[in-house]
Each structure stands twice: as C-alpha cells, then as structure tokens.
Amino acid sequence: MTHSPPISRRALLSSAHAGVSTLTLPSMVHAQAASAHVVVVGGGFGGAPQAQRGEDHHAKIELDILDAYHGSERTITLRGAQLDASGHVVPNERSLQVKIPKGVREGQLIRLVGQGSPGSGGAAAGNLFLEVRFAPHPRWRAEGRDVYQALPLAPWE
C-alpha cells in the first residue's frame, strides 16, 4: 500500500484591485481526490461508510489599516479544482463576500463556516480561515491594538 505525501493546506491570498482578491488553493485537487475515498468502519462484513467532515483551509488576506479599523466588505475569488461526475479534475472558481469585522487585529483569524472542502457521506463542509495581515501604510503602523504614527520633531518643538 502506498501513502501519499502530506497535503499542505496553506494558500496565499493576494489583493487584486479595489477590494477584490484572488485565493488559489493548489492542494485542493489532492484534497478533493482524498475526500472521494470511502472509509469503512467496523471491519469485516456489514461495515457502513462513515460520514467525514470536510477539511479546513487556511489563507492570508491583506488589509489596509483603515479597513481593519472601520470594518469593511471584501469580495474574494476562490480558485481550485474539483472532481466532476466522471471523476475528472476540472477547474473551479467561486466568489465570496467577506465581512471584515470592525477592530480586527493583525494575525487574527476570520472563520468562514462551510467554505472549506466538502464533507463525504453527507457530513458538513470544512471551514476557510483567513489570517489577517496589514498592508504597509505610509503614516501608521499597528502593534496589537495600538496604532502609531511617527512625527518628526525638531529639538526646539
């Protein structure tokens, strides 16, 4: 019996333009193929297939500090692959509206329930976790919940 190498669940989310982002899930082909396998529990005769929850996916989303402070909505496009009815791998693309909560911090995870890999045997889909990163800003930098601005001052000021 051969074992396949572990599948990386990381993906990169890059800003495209005006609040629209693209997410590529390179391991989704493998994750979809793996979820097509049936797991038999109980051994011997009469074992029934077990429902298995879909796998979670992780990605990074880059936000402006002002979007994090005020909250916003973003449209992201998920690109990946899935198996069609005949078992062939076909490209898949879908868009999601993501609400960025007010006051989100760098490193915080935003969970999108049911947006990960589909479950097998009627089980629920996995989740998509977006890790928040801040884009560099010319005036401000954030550290935890604090925002700093450098002010050039002369000694006499």
Q: Point out poorly predicted stretches.
A: 1-22, 24-44
The neighbouring-strand order within the major sheet is 7-6-2-1-5-9-8
Instruction: Using the CA coordinates, give the radius of gyration.
Output: 21 Å
- How would the global form be characterised? elongated
Number of strand elements: 11
Helix content: under 10%
Task: Average the pLDDT over all residues and give the rounded result.
Answer: 74
Note the gap between the termini: 75 Å
The secondary structure category is mainly beta
Please give the count of helices. 2
Beta-strand content? 35-45%
Write structural notes for this entry.
- The structure is a single chain.
- The protein has 157 residues and is mostly beta strands.
- Residues 1-22 and 24-44 have low confidence and may be disordered.
- A hairpin with a 2-residue loop joins strand 10 (140-143) and strand 11.
- Helices cover 9% and strands 43% of the residues.
- The protein contains two helices and eleven strands; from the N terminus they run ββαβββαββββββ.
- It has a seven-stranded mixed sheet with strand order 7-6-2-1-5-9-8.
